[in-house]
C-alpha cells in the first residue's frame, strides 16, 4: 500500500467519524443552547448564545467550524464541569487506558495458552470446556456479570475493594504523576496506595480480561488449527521433533502474526467498550464521563469523548493493519 493511499484512507475514515458525530449532535432532541443557559432564560439570551455558538448558520458552515474546532482540540466547554472538554478528557482518559491495558494483558496471557490447548486437544473435553468459556464470555451481559462479581467478591467474600479507583483515605494524600495510578504509586514508592489501587482495579480488569479472553482464545484456536494442518508440521514430526517444540516454536510462531492483530483489535474494543464496566464499578474513566454527560444533556462532552474513542479505535486499527503487513510479507502488495 502506498503512503498516499494510506493517508487517503486515514483522512476519509476520520472525516466519516466527524460527520457521524456532527449528525448525531444535530438530530438528538437536546438543545445545546438550553443546556447551557437553562430553559427559563430570556429569548434574547437564547438567541445570542445560539449566534455565539454558530448554531444559527447553515449546516455546512456549522460542520466546517466543527471540524476546525476538533483539529484544534477544541470541543467546547462541559456544561456539567464548566471545564474545557479536552481538559476533562485528559483527566479521565488515563483511567480507561489503565483499565483496558490490564484487561488486555489478562485476556492475552490466559487466552492464548487456552486457545493453543484447545487446538492441540481438538474434540476433547478440554476443547469443549474452552469453547464453553468463550461462549459464556460472548453471551453474558457485561453489566450483569459485573454486578454479580461485586456481590460475590466484594460484598460477600471481601476479597477485593469496592467501586471506585482509590479509597477515600488515599484520595487527598496520593498525588498522581502520570494519571496511571498503579504506575504512579510505584514511582512514589507508596506501597500502601499501590495495594489499595490494585484491590480496586483487579475486579473490573478481570471482568474485561474475561471478555477479551473469550475472543482471543477462540481466534488462537482457529489460527492454531490452521497451522497444525500445514505440511511443514507433518515434515517436522517426520524429522522427530518433539510435540512441544512443534506446537510452541513452529505453529504458534506462525500463528502469532495474525494473533498480534487480534490482540490489538481486542485492546481497541476494550477502550471503546468499557462504558458499562466503568458505570457498574463507578470507575472514573472516559466511559463514565460520557455516561454522566449524556444523562445531563452535556452534548459537548458526549461528542468530544466519542471523537476521542473513535480516533483511538481508528489509530489502533491502522496500527494493527500496518503491523500485520510488516510481519507478513505476503500481504504487503495486497
UniProtKB/TrEMBL annotation:
Domain (ABC transmembrane type-1): residue spans on this chain: 93-324
Gene3D superfamilies: MetI-like (1.10.3720.10)
Transmembrane segments: 7-28, 99-120, 132-155, 197-216, 255-281, 301-324
Signal sequence extent: none
Record's bilayer topology term: Multi-pass membrane protein
Entry keyword Transport: yes
Stated family: Belongs to the binding-protein-dependent transport system permease family.
Name of the featured protein: Binding-protein-dependent transport systems inner membrane component
Organism name: Mesorhizobium alhagi CCNWXJ12-2
Amino acid at each position: 500500500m502506498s503512503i498516499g493511499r494510506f493517508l487517503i484512507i486515514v483522512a476519509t475514515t476520520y472525516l466519516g467519524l466527524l460527520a457521524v458525530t456532527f449528525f448525531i449532535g444535530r438530530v438528538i432532541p437536546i438543545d445545546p443552547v438550553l443546556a447551557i443557559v437553562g430553559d427559563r432564560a430570556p429569548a434574547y439570551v437564547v438567541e445570542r448564545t445560539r449566534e455565539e455558538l454558530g448554531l444559527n448558520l447553515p449546516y455546512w458552515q456549522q460542520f466546517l467550524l466543527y471540524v476546525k474546532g476538533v483539529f484544534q482540540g477544541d470541543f467546547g466547554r462541559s456544561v456539567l464541569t464548566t471545564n474545557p472538554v479536552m481538559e476533562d478528557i485528559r483527566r479521565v482518559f488515563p483511567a480507561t487506558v489503565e483499565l483496558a491495558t490490564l484487561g488486555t494483558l489478562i485476556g492475552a496471557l490466559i487466552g492464548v495458552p487456552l486457545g493453543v490447548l484447545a487446538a492441540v486437544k481438538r474434540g476433547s473435553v478440554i476443547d469443549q470446556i474452552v469453547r464453553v468459556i468463550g461462549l459464556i464470555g460472548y453471551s453474558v451481559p457485561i453489566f450483569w456479570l459485573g454486578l454479580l462479581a461485586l456481590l460475590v467478591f466484594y460484598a460477600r467474600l471481601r476479597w477485593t475493594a469496592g467501586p471506585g479507583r482509590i479509597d477515600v483515605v488515599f484520595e487527598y494524600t496520593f498525588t498522581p504523576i502520570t494519571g496511571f495510578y498503579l504506575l504512579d504509586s510505584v514511582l512514589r514508592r507508596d506501597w500502601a496506595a499501590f495495594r489499595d489501587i490494585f484491590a480496586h482495579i483487579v475486579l473490573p480488569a478481570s471482568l474485561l480480561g474475561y471478555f477479551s479472553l473469550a475472543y482471543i482464545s477462540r481466534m488462537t484456536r482457529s489460527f492454531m488449527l490452521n497451522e497444525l494442518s500445514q505440511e511443514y508440521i507433518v515434515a517436522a514430526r517426520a524429522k522427530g521433533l518433539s510435540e512441544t517444540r512443534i506446537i510452541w516454536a513452529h505453529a504458534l510462531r506462525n500463528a502469532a502474526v495474525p494473533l498480534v492483530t487480534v490482540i490489538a483489535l481486542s485492546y481497541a474494543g476494550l477502550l471503546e467498550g468499557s462504558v458499562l464496566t466503568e458505570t457498574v464499578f463507578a470507575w472514573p474513566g472516559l466511559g463514565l464521563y460520557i455516561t454522566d454527560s449524556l444523562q445531563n444533556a452535556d452534548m459537548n462532552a458526549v461528542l468530544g469523548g466519542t471523537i476521542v474513542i473513535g480516533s483511538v479505535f481508528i489509530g489502533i486499527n491502522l496500527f494493527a493493519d500496518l503491523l500485520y503487513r510488516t510481519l507478513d510479507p505476503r500481504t504487503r502488495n495486497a
